[in-house]
Amino acid sequence: MVEFEWGPVMLQERSGGGEQETEGAVMVRGAALYDAAVALVTFGRARELYRHTAAAAAPRERDRVIDIGCGTGLLTCEVAKLIREGEIVGIDASEPMIDVARRKRSTPICRYEAALAEDLPFEDEYFDVAVSSLFFHHLGPDLKEKCAAEMARVLRRGGRVAVADFDKAWNLFGRIYEHVGLLAEEQDLKDSMAGVLPEVLRGAGLANVAPGYGILGCIRIYTARKPSDEFPWR
Ligand SMILES: C[S@@+](CC[C@H](N)C(=O)[O-])C[C@H]1O[C@@H](n2cnc3c(N)ncnc32)[C@H](O)[C@@H]1O
What ranges in 107-222 are assigned the alpha helix state H? Predict the structure, then answer.
């Protein structure tokens, strides 16, 4: 019998030598079977979602890209397929997920680190692009805001964002999906399915927040930009 377990974990603090606990639902057990599980719950459409998210982020040669809550690196490696040179870093609070990502999806330009999304171990404005998939619905309201703020902090001015996650259902399939079984009981997921993501991204100071491609009537890609000094509306 396969058991998945999600819960809070302790990780090393960015500043100082201590440890920090996250409130996020972090994968504790079952990482080896995550890829199969995500294929199952997306009815075989996960790869399509990752390909579209990577394309929406539009990485350019030599860009630095961060994938936040990267899990086993499924989206990270789709981004890595789009450029030959650059630096692509997937971070996740789950060491078992990072181990799987390192084993299955490391490339010369693509690496994985165990880190908290609310305390990213990178300097301000280090990245050109930030991506994320199926991550924000694991966080309570405050943590959603903190993680979006961290995403914006590590992004350079004018940098691009593509985030795929649960959204307000926009068709019958999405409404059915929303009310099925286990998923319906998760409060953080319910918040995401109330459509909070665009507001969370705007609240972090990101601009041009726009809905894009979606699957299953309830999982949507949002793109955004960190405003640049030169063109503050971009
Ligand atoms: C459903 S998985 C998505 C993984 C991957 N992005 C994908 O699309 O397959 C959500 C991931 O978020 C991670 N996570 C949850 N809270 C986190 C936090 N505070 N910081 C970093 N990662 C976190 C979990 O460990 C898990 O790997």
Answer: 141-154, 172-178, 187-193, 197-203
